Amino acid sequence: MNQTINVDQLNSALTSLRTLRSSVSHVFETLSHGLRADHGEDGKDKFLSELQELLNNVNINVRDLEQTVNSLPIPTAPFNLGNTTFLSQDTTQDRQALYTQLVNSYKWTDKIHEYSSFAYTLLNQNSLKRSNINSATKRRGKMQSNHNVAPLQVDNVINNIGRSYNDMKITISRPFASNAVVQINLSHVLKAVVAFKGLLMEWVMVKGYGETLDLWTESRHNVFRKVTENAHAAMLHFYSPMIPELAVRSFMTWLHSYVNLFSDPCKRCGCHLHHTSMLPPAWRDFRSLEPFHDECKQ
């Protein structure tokens, strides 16, 4: 019974200590922020009154902590520390701090054990046994790199995609060594250039049909700058290092949906131009390919 009472009193003392530390932290936080806009015209007086109130809370918490600590019973015998008590009796100068280091090491390993238990529980809840990485490893023995793909294979994949669309012309060039740069002309609506590394898309730039096409200069039209921004989001969405052909085909299908950029209305508001941005629906849903304004896609 006495042990239970001592534990309760110790918990009460620790709670008072935490409360005191929190109130002191509030004082220093208020001092660091200084005068704020919500203090109004009489900011200095309000700031001083707020600080005075926080200091009063600190004084109250200090008194509570002193009362709680004074109520704790004094240990009748020294704590049993086992053989570690002899470490502090070593007269060698470089070993006198060994006991403190040992205590810190024990605390550190105890936290490592606790965090490892949490990580083990979380990882068991999210099993990776059926992931693409493990399944591909079983089928192929090791993961295949899609950065080092033969140029002929890249050309075949892109040309096969291009044959699926009559109104989208695809041209392949290699100005930078063996990596392909694909230029896309979409039915007198827009032009795009996509930089590849192997079969993985790395960069997209979309411009108006009458603009000069390159990889680095943005379009002078707001609508095509918005389409470029959305194209980067689509490139990341369809990214699939395990099935790169599907990723390229999905992206090209998504980009082809802009063939009606200036004719299809927004599926949410039904308007061609948004009343604030005055832009056509420049966003295409990744699944349905339906057009939306950026403001209406939420």
UniProtKB/TrEMBL annotation:
**What top-level branch of life does the organism fall under?**
Eukaryota
Quote the InterPro entries the UniProt record gives: Mediator_Med27
Coiled-coil residues: none
Q: Which Pfam families match?
A: Med27
Write out the entry's keywords from A to Z.
Nucleus, Transcription, Transcription regulation
Matching PANTHER family: 34 KDA TRANSCRIPTIONAL CO-ACTIVATOR-RELATED, MEDIATOR OF RNA POLYMERASE II TRANSCRIPTION SUBUNIT 27
The protein in question is named: Mediator of RNA polymerase II transcription subunit 27
Q: Which organism is it from?
A: Pieris brassicae (White butterfly)
